[in-house]
Amino acid sequence: MDFPADTDTRTVSVWNDKVEVTFRSLGRGPDLIYLHPAAGLGHSPFLAELSKHFRIHAPHFPGTDPERPREIHKIGSLWDLVLIYEEAIRAMDLAGAPVMGESFGGMLSLELAANFPDLFSRLALLAPVGIWREDIPIANWIAAPPEAMPAMLFADPAGPAAKAIFTPPDDPDVAADQTAALVWSIGVTGKFLWPLPEKGLESRLHRVTAPVHLIWGNEDRLIPITYADLFAGALKDAKITRLPDAGHALSFESGPAVIEAALPFLAPAGAARGVA
Amino acid sequence: MKINYFQLIPYRRFASDFEAHHGAAVDTPYALVDPQEVRSAYRDALGQYMHAARRGFDGLAVTEHSQSAYDMLPNPSLICSALAHATDTEGLATAIHPLGRSLGKAREPLRVAEEMAMIDCISGGRLVAGFPVGLAYDASMNNGVPPAEVRARFDENLELVLRAWTDPEPFAFNGRFSQHGCVNIWPRPLQSQPPVWITGIGNPNTMKFVLSRGFGFNYFSWFGTKATGPRIFNRFYDIAAEMGVETNPYQMGFMQMIAVAETDAEAERLYAPHAEYFARKALGAIPMNQLALPGGIDIRGLEFIFRDPKDFGAYAQMKTATYRDLVDSGALIAGSPETVAQQLRETLSEFRIGNLHAMLHFGSMPRDLAEANIDLFADRVMPKLRDLWEGHDHHWWPEALGGAARPETNTPMKEAV
Predict the structure, then answer these.
(1) Is A143 in the B-facing interface, judged by CB distances under 8 Å?
(2) Other residues' Cβ atoms within 10 Å of the Cβ of residue B82
(3) How far away is chain A from the Cα of B177, in angstroms, using its nearest Cα?
């Protein structure tokens, strides 16, 4: 799904002008940073609805902007990645805005907030990765066969949301490019998630001072909902909303419920920054 | 023409429905094995390698795969060092060729450099070093290297290994993936620099790299040479032409599964169960999501592969392949000595291949049949291939075994980087 024509695309040069980060900005309302999941950044009914309430600023993870696929090779470590995002958010003059992070984007949001506690005013996180327990293994979506993905990501693997994602376009060239972009996006984000999506975040979570709202699907088969309690237990100020009949791909399968849960948290009266 | 003996070391006693329930790598349950059959697999494999060395094969080619039921060979150096000593003891002038010491997988590249240097010393300068980037499942799933870092790790590790072999002075190495305050390995190889071979699956970037550095290029035909051969080999030569690099058949290595019997019908009778075992319980039982992981192939390569997957040849059919399917696809060249020699000669000639890695043991094959295959091949096929490429110098072969000095294009790593 293409971004609407009035979406602003802005590329900021960071990391001593060595890395370019592309932001898509859309909608009207207070600023909201959106950090996308491992599958990449594309427009969706969820973002369309969210953009009715916020001015969304969504950076492409380096390497997932179709124009700049090799930016990923310039980033050697998670530490560099966090600093690059921090520079990019400040370059966009977005410091102090709330953030919504989805899955991998949720982990990234928490890493940023742990390193720079004033960077976000609030964090709404959709089933973030970042903690891993041997007795509650998280499925390896990077190595999963394609046929396993619907059941891994959706509460209803045969439902319309799953079909909309996994039905290839009729044009084989478009289908090839879309599949390549999806695989590449999972690969470049996987650079910081392999072999297990746990890079010490739990030990840093106590540094997060902004309020955190964890939104989780009761039927999440990728990251079991038990992890919501583990995150909340390690954070200073966290609450959990558990969504019934929802899987891991929350923004695709349960968009309206996510927005209903997140709105009062992200834009409480008088708390928003940069109200248009 | 150089002809090496090649085999994997598979577990040979899986039940007939193994592939319906299990994959061949990463998570194959070890509870399925009889430990004595594992012991037999090593004893027979080492015996077969030595039998081939005695029968006049030019080299012994060994792979590397961890957590693999189809090739129980987590470290080729162990097999190669045993073969280096045994061939030395018997006075056999046979190259020792670890085809696959994956440097995209290696977390201790200096250990690779040391082990290979030891093999070269033990063998008296007969090492031919092979450094593939590494299979996705092995480098990433087994060894935890992020797929997006495998290639970069390979590049860095190769630089370190070659410098550790050749730099006469101790040096500090400050890499992204390893740091060493003082690199000064003991021993250095006996050869000033052992020949270096890279195994590829068709990635043009790997071919460009091989050609720019003057290394040898190995290609494995498991997915059927008839479909993949014209694509892969011609791509290599087209890229060489684009780069203005003069090619030499001895820069090309080719692994081919081969079965020889007195007649074509006899070959089918003797080898069909073992070839089908290999296709179904090894190649066909490695799922695609273990052979290629997101991040391992860059987006331009992905766009190419999703439009045109033919580099994978008959891979998708392997799980149910019959003997006839394997022969028809070229994955297996089988038949009487005349049939096999004719087909091999055509393939080697057409694609200008100077090094054949003859895979004469595969699947569930017992030792007596493997040695019969080796004998028939050595007696009645090998002589019909020997004259190929006479007059060309082999720059990718140990000088102790008649190899020519490396050409100037084979620039030492430090100068080429």
Answers:
(1) yes
(2) 17
(3) 10
Most A CBs within 10 Å, among B138, B302, B310, to test the A interface:
B302
CB B358 within 8 A of CB B3: yes
Q: Domain A8-266 has what CATH class?
A: alpha beta
Six-digit token pair at B37?
């059959």
The three-state secondary structure class of B20 is helix
Which residue reads 């030492």 in tokens? B412
Facing A190 at nearest CB: one of B146, B303, B306? B146
Residue extents of the structural domains in chain A: 8-266
* Portion 191-210 of B in contact with A at CB < 8 A: none
Residue B307 near chain A (CB below 8 Å): yes
Q: State how far the Cα of B225 lies from the Cα of B383, in Å rounded to an integer.
A: 22
**3-class SS at A199?**
coil
Residue B227 in contact with residue B314, Cβ under 8 Å?
yes
CA distances from A55 to A101, A276, B110, B311 (A): 15, 9, 53, 46
Which tens digit of pLDDT belongs to each residue from B117-159? Answer: 999 999 999 999 999 999 999 999 999 999 999 999 999 999 9
Distance CA B259, CA B332 (A): 7
Helices in chain A by DSSP H: which ranges?
A: 45-50, 78-91, 104-115, 149-153, 160-166, 172-190, 201-204, 226-234, 250-253, 255-266
Nearest to A144 by CA among A160, A157, A130: A157
Cβ pair B102, B138 in contact under 8 A = yes
Q: Do A195 and B287 touch (CB under 8 A)?
A: no
Beta carbon pairs, A and B, within 8 Å: 79
Q: Sign of the C-alpha dihedral, residues A44, A117, A112, A155?
A: negative
The whole-angstrom separation of Cα B350 and Cα B252 is 12
Residue B162 has pLDDT above 50, yes or no: yes
**Rounded mean pLDDT of chain B?**
94
Quote the tokens at residue B414. Answer: 């430090």
Whether omega for the bond prior to residue A62 falls within 30 degrees of 0, making it cis, is no
- Whether A265 contacts A211, CB under 8 Å: yes
* Domains of chain B and any CATH numbers: 2-416 (3.20.20.30)
The Cα A55–Cα A68 span in angstroms is: 24
B141 touches chain A (CB under 8 A): yes
Joined together, the tokens standing for residue A166 give 């996994």
Pick from B103, B14, B1, B99: nearest CA to B49: B99
* Other beta carbons less than 10 A from residue B186's beta carbon: 7
| Predicted local distance difference test score (pLDDT) of residue B305 | 85
Q: Which residues pair with A31 in a beta bridge?
A: A55
Beta strands A19-26; A8-14: pairing state: antiparallel
Q: pLDDT tens string for chain A (276 positions)?
A: 789 999 999 999 999 999 999 999 999 999 999 999 999 999 999 999 999 999 999 999 999 998 999 999 999 999 999 999 999 999 999 999 999 999 999 999 999 999 999 999 999 999 999 999 999 999 999 999 999 999 999 999 999 999 998 998 999 999 999 999 999 999 999 999 999 999 999 999 999 999 999 999 999 999 999 999 999 999 999 999 999 999 999 999 999 999 999 999 998 754 444 443
Q: Do B148 and A180 touch (CB under 8 A)?
A: no
The DSSP H or E segment spanning B155 is: helix B150-166
Report DSSP state, residue B141: I
pLDDT in tens, A28-75: 999 999 999 999 999 999 999 999 999 999 999 999 998 999 999 999
Task: Name the residue with tokens 């039905």.
Answer: A167
Least Cα separation, residue B144 to chain A (angstroms): 5
